[in-house]
Write a structure and sequence with these properties.
This protein is α/β, with parallel strands linked by helices. The chain is built from 8 helices and 5 strands. The longest helix has 28 residues.
């Protein structure tokens, strides 16, 4: 297992810690929707509680070591994974005709976000990098309803991909682009908005928070 260098800049440190935490809590949320024994649910609750502690400790670490970090990521903190199956089923009935493009280089995070969005009823295409995302965008017969992109990726960043998509758009309406990032600095948020990204959310994100984001932007785009 590789070690994490705490002397690196806050954006890289944030990415190194938030990405695995996204995977852990995302898989825990998926497990919460399965049939589990009482003992298994107890284990899952403990995982969620430790995830919450890890997230809080991580935010405190960044705050103490890097006073310039804009620590606005607490809205995405995981308190406990809640049973949200009813919400997901209701959303699925509404979203079943909508396609979403997910741009993410980490295979496990790809899977988690794909599962979340499919539970919400969306049809999901996944791109592992910017080049594949632009190819899917250009070859799509019907436009995507929304795009969910990571920011820190090899090759083209999420900011660069979003800027390229905005240049390619020809319709009267722009596709909502939502960025998920482990970089909580204000500088990154402003760069995202300047590239045409509609909203920037901090990793990790829960299904119910993702549902709220998509509903807000898709409603505004109708």
């Amino acid at each position: 297992m590789g070690s994490i260098n705490l002397s690196i800049n806050p954006a890289i440190l944030s990415h190194e810690l938030r990405t695995p935490l996204t995977a852990i809590l995302g898989l825990a949320e998926e497990l919460c929707q399965q049939k589990l024994t009482k003992k298994q649910r107890t284990y899952l609750k403990n995982i969620c509680q430790q995830g919450e502690r890890l997230f809080a400790a991580f935010n405190q670490l960044l705050f103490e070591q890097y006073k310039t970090v804009d620590n606005k990521g607490n809205d995405c903190a995981i308190n406990e994974v809640k049973a949200i199956v009813k919400k997901l089923n209701n959303a699925a009935k509404i979203n079943s005709e909508l396609s979403v493009l997910v741009i993410e280089d980490e295979p496990l995070i790809q899977r988690i976000h794909k599962i979340m969005l499919e539970k919400l009823g969306y049809r999901v295409d996944v791109a592992k990098d910017g080049a594949q995302a632009l190819a899917l965008y250009n070859n799509k017969t019907a436009p995507y309803a929304a795009i969910l992109t990571d920011i820190s990726m090899p090759g083209m960043s999420g900011i660069e991909v979003s800027s390229a998509i905005r240049r390619l758009e020809t319709g009267t309406q722009s596709i909502p682009i939502i960025a998920l990032t482990a970089d909580i600095t204000e500088e990154t948020r402003q760069a995202c908005l300047a590239a045409g990204i509609n909203e920037v959310a901090t990793k990790p994100i829960r299904s119910d928070a993702l549902q709220t984001l998509f509903q807000r932007h898709l409603s505004a785009n109708r």
